[in-house]
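Please annotate the following for my students:
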Amino acid sequence: MTKFHHLIWMVTVTVGLTLSASQSYAQQPDPGDQPGLVADDSVELDPEWQKQMVLYRTTEPPGTIIISTAERHLYLVQPGGRALRYGIGVGRDGFQWQGLLNISKKAEWPDWTPPPEMIARQPYLPRFMAGGPGNPLGARAMYLGATVYRIHGTNQPWTIGTAISSGCFRLVNADVSDLYDRVPVGTKVIVRQKPEL
C-alpha cells in the first residue's frame, strides 16, 4: 500500500508542477506583437520564405488559399498544377488550428482591437490602434469567417517562418499587399497543420 501512496503522490506532484509551469509560461511577456514598431521593409527574407511560383498538386480550384502551418507557407492555387507560395508566420504552440473558412472582409491599413483574451495575456497592449505603419496588422488584412483570425501583414518581417502569433497568419507587407490584390471576399481558405500525403 505504501508503494501505491508513493505513486499517487508522485503523480500529484508531477501534474501540479506541469500546471504551474504552463501557467507561468502563459504569463510571460508575449514577444508576438510590438505596437508602434515601424516595419523595416528592406529586410530580405531567406529564399525559403520569399514569394515564388511552385509546382503544387491539389484538387482545389484556382483561387483557393491553402495554409500549411507545419511548412509555414501559404499557397494561392493557380491553374496548371502551380501555386504562388508565400512565407508566413503562424500561431505558436497552443495557438495553432485547422479548418475551412472564407475571407469575410478585407481592409487596407486595418485598425487593430486586440481581443480580450489577448489583453489578458498581454496587459501592456493598447486597447485600440489605428491602422498605419506601426500597427502589428501591417498593410493589409483578410478576415477569416466570423473568427478573430486574419491573414495580415506585419511590422516584424523577421518573424516570417516562425511560430509566434496568437493564431493569425502574417506575411511581410509587400506579400500581403500582393495577395490582397489577387483574392476577393469569399475566397476559400483551407488551414492545415500537417502536409497532405
Remarks:
- The first strand starts at residue 52 and ends at 55.
- The mean pLDDT is 83.
- Helices lie at 2-26, 116-121, 173-182.
- Residues 40-192 form a domain with the L,D-transpeptidase catalytic domain-like fold (CATH 2.40.440.10).
